[in-house]
Each structure stands twice: as C-alpha cells, then as structure tokens.
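Schema walk-through. Below, the input block comes first and the output block second. Nothing else is stored per chain. Lengths vary across the set, and this one has 718 residues.
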Amino acid sequence: MKKNLAIGLFVVLVAAASCSFTNKTFENDDKDKLLLDLITYVLNKAHYEPKDINDDFSVNVFEDFIDVIDPTKRYFLESDIKEFEQQKFQIDDQIKNTDITFFNLVYNRLMQRMEDAKEIYQEVLEEPFDFAKKESINIEYNDLLFAESRKVLKERWRQQLKYATLNTYDAKVTNGHVHSPDEAPDFHDKDTDADKPMAPKEAEISARVSTKKTLDEFFEFVSDLQRKDWFVQYLNTIVDEFDPHTFYFAPEDKELFDTRMSGKFEGIGARLQKKPEGAKIVDIISGGPVWRDASLEVGDIILKVAQEGEVPVDIVGMRLDDAIKMIKGPESTVVELTVRKIDGSTDVVSLIRDVVELEESFAKSAKISKDNLNFGLINLPKFYVDFDDYTDRNCATDVAKEIERLKQEGAEGLILDLRDNGGGSLKAVIEMSGLFIKDGPIVQVRSSGKGKEVYDDKDERVQWDGPLVILVNELSASASEILAAAMQDYKRAIVIGSKQTFGKGTVQNVIDLGNIVRSNEHGDLGAIKLTTQKFYRINGGSTQLEGVKSDVVVPDKYSYIDIGERDQSNPLKWDKISPADYEPWEGYIDYDQTIANSKARMAKNPQIELIEENAKWIKTQQEENLISLNYETYKAEKSKDKKKSDYFKKMKEYDSKLSFESLKYEQELFTKDSVLREKRDRWHKDLAKDVYVEEAINVLQDLKMNNIKNGKLASVKG
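--- output ---
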C-alpha cells in the first residue's frame, strides 16, 4: 500500500517537475544550489503540511543551524553571531532564490574559528588543572551566551576540558594506569605499579595528556570533512523545520538507508540522535550488539568513542554522521564507548561490532504456565516486510504462525508485546490486526488536501478469538500505535503500559532526487524522506503527539523524561476526523471491571512502586545540569549516585514465579543450535523478572474467568 503511494507520488512530482526543471540550465549554478532548489520544490509539492518559507521560518533556520554546528558555543564569538544576524530575516528569500550566502558566511567563519580553537585548546592543556578549586560548569548549553572575547572563550574551553578530564583523572587516581607509548617520558614513574592508583600530580598530567590526544584526533577527524558535508547539515536544518521525520539523505547516506531497509544493520545496532552533550541512543535494534550486550539502553548518551586499546575521542560537538562513522567499523572489531547512563552515572561499555542477527528482529513466542493454565506471549520487535516480495516473509504471516503453534500447545490467553516496537509496514499492521477481529476498519489515512481513506480488514477469518493483552511503552510507535489503537477501539484487547505511547501518527515516503531532473551533470543527488500522510484511529482521533493511552497505566524508567514525538523538533499537530463505521467486539464480559482489577493490583505492587521511584530519580538526574569541577565534591556526588543506582538494581532481582518455555518446534531446533537455546534461556529469564508480563497474565486470567462465569467464550458477533 505504501509502495503504491510512493509510485503515485513520484509520478505526480516528475510530471510537475518536467516543466520546472528540464527547462532550467544550471550552467552557472553549483550542485548546492540545485539541491536547495530541488528539495524546497519537493517539500512544497509533496509534504503533508507544507510550511510558508517566511521571516519566521528564516529565524528558525538561523537559530537551529548555529545550534547544530556549535552546540556547546565554543567556536563562534558574540561578534560573529551579530554579523550573522544581519541575514537572520533574509534566509527565506535566499532559499527562494537558491542563494547560499548565509551558509557560505557561517561555513567560512566556522573554518576560521576551528583553527583558532586548535590554538586555544593546546594553550589550555599546557597548564595543570586545579581539581581542588571549588568551581562548577553548567552543561545546559542552551542557556549559555556566546563568548564576547577570545579570553572569555578560552576560559570556557578551560572549564569544558577540565570537565572532560575529570572522569579520566578519577579513573587514574582510583584504579591506576597502564602507560601508553605516546605519553612523554617524564610522565612515567618507574616505581609505580600499573595496577596501583596513581599519585594525584601524575594522574593529573596523564589525564591531561589523554584529553589532548582526544582533541588532536577530533580535529584531525574534522579536518577530513569537506564543504559538502557541512552543506548537508544546512539542508537538513531547513528540512527539519517541516517535521522531525523529514530528512535529506546525501548519496552515501542513501546507500546506508537502503541497507537498513533491507534488514541488514552493521555496527552496534542502535539509532542515535545528536545532542549538545553527545549522541543519544533513541532506538536499539533487536539482535544487534547493543541488544545482546544489554549494558546500554534508550536514553543513554555516548560521550566518547575509542577503538580497542586506543585513547577515547570526545564526540561532544561532533556532527552526528561523523560520530557514527567512528562508532561503526569492521565486523568483529571492538569499540569502547564512554556513556552517561540514563540515571546520570558514567560507564565505559565495550562492544564487538557485528551484523544484526535478522532472526532476533522477527516475531518470537513463549509458552507461560500458571495455576495449571497455559498462556502465550508473542514478542514483535518491528512490523517487518520484504518490500520487494511481501509474500516472502512478513510479520503478519509470522505472527499468524506463532498463534497457531500456541493454540496447538493449549494457550488460553495471548500477550502481544509491542514494547520498544518503532513500527514499520502499514500493510502488515492492517493484516495483523485482522487476525483478532472478523472484519472491519483498522486505520484511517489522510493525504494533504484530500479526503480520508479507510483501510479495512476484509478477511472474515479470526486467527485468535481468545483473551488478548497488548503491552506497550513510550517507545511503541507508528504501526504499533495503529494496532494498539484499533484493538482498544474495538474493545478487543486490554492495553497495558505507559501513560501514552510515542505519538508518531505520520507516514513517510522516500523520493530519489535524481529522478526528478531529466538531465543532470552533477551526479547522484541523494534522496529525501518526507512526511506525506497522517493516520487516524477508527474513532477519528489522531495518534500524533497523543499516542495511545493505556487502559492500565504502569510506570517505567521513561515515564518522566522527554522521549516521545511531542519532545521532537517541529512535530505535526494533533487533530481528529470523523470516525469510521465499526462495532465493538462482543466477546468479553466485564471489560471495565477487568481494567479496574488490574489498576488495583498495580497500585499495591511493591515492584511498581520501586519502578516509579526509579523513574522520578532518573528525571531529577537528567535535570541536574550544574556539575562540580572540584574533585572531592565530584567524588562525593559520584558515590552518592552509585549508591542510589545500586539501590535500584534490586528491581532486576524481581521474580514473578512464572514458568516460561519455548514451543516444541523451537525446542527441536535446540539440539542443532545451542546458540539459539542460550538466547531463549536469556529471554525467558528476563521475562520471569518482568512485572508487566506478570500483570498481563493476571488480566488474561480475569478475562478468561469472566467469560466462563458468564457462560460465554470470546467470539465475534455472528
């Protein structure tokens, strides 16, 4: 369905573009101007909600571009910004006239200021840091003004580098140090054992040397960037003003995108987002190194990157694409990441780069036993399809197979786990929703300037007519929200999870820019992914921003932090349309009472209270932006945070007393695949500690007993 839309959209664009671009000659224009012209044209013609490129738009581009290239405000001076501001209200006119004067001014000045910065950081690192001095640094850089002079800028560098060195200094004073060959000879102490803590003076010198090496490598890395790399950042600043899911792919990035869409993920298996303090993990790919290691989680921020055995490179302020290039690498090599955890603690995590194991991104199921009853759980990491051949393998067909297997093994209730599922194929989610109802509408879709379309399940077969619970969290998005919303509107399932899901209620398509120009002398032009549609629940409400509100709300570590669509830049607004024609499911009795019972159980559960306490603590840690640069204070705060972090580790000791096992077909595979057995054993152990799964089983029992008590099995009308 999405594929057909993309083809139709492409035809419209090409037809319209024929007169716009074939008659233009770009003999006097460079590739940058052509790209700017093409991208703004496509955005205006094809985006779901085109924006007026006016003075307000100009101001937003101005502020956002400066923030993208100098987020920690350690390059530009106040005088630079004042000079840039002369064009603050002219960028909209420049865009319309394919004029890149603003970009050229900022880019050329950035190159100059980076050369200045090389001198500044070397001057700073020639002097010892006084870790006994009582001073602090505010890492909320948005509140920081640009430096008014080189002197002020140098002081800013001193504080930032002292902050960057403090953790290294602590490690050397606490744990000792194996001297690296690049250190100066006078930094060595022959009487110092490598495993013994270093003396404060030696630790300070050694830590400063490490910081200098990090900065040397960072600027060496940046020096390899070309002007076109920075221009892509400018283009994406413009594109990002439309919505957070619209993005320009340079030619090499388009190749990476195509690879990811094919289902093969190389590197560490995580999606990152640029933040002033580093690269934030916003998605973990099932089956990847991060997923298998289980040391990192969504919300963690990568501060430094090191190749095995080498000094870490600080990625604060680095372009996200460049940070990703450092993190990625050949399969089986090791990358070491210095990470600020979601709870505020700092850790170093070593990962072996690998290709994501595709099987772990597919649906998998487990049988659960309780009180002589059997239940089933299906975990779905994403709504996957083979876009070239839908019949080859897709999640709807796989889930249907797992349901049949669970039914054969006597499952009397089903849990569909959509936590952390970021979405995927629209066609697949419609087909999958149809597994649980007889027929009827699943989702409504509206394109810009057009009426709504209602997408129905037309297959009257019901694959599963028993009690159903859907688990969601703040990271359940897009297709996950479509399925959860449809089942909630039909009163077909009880949704347990976060207060609301992610809130992504939009559809994107990718357009190859090269296909819009008949003759092109500039080579590959890349592609643009843009929002073309919005989808709506069958009750008429959009899932955009609001997501799906769980029937039974339970806290998790993300409950109080900014992680949803509403927290992204420039999201589309929530709205509603007329509802579709549908009838609620009639298979359950006392649906509302079952929800009330669950809420009452959750309110008294000590594990839930602990999770809530942890979520609130994480929120306070993330709001703490004033960091002490005094070593004793730093140590005391670090010790306090560690104690609190250790206190919350008891959440992992929880035992639901439920029994989990693989289905028979999978157990037969274990004889030939010991790795698969190990993966499933680990998964089952995690499920046994999962209070949300435990409550889902309680709800399934309530639904089953309600049906038995009322002498009615769950079934569709007619």
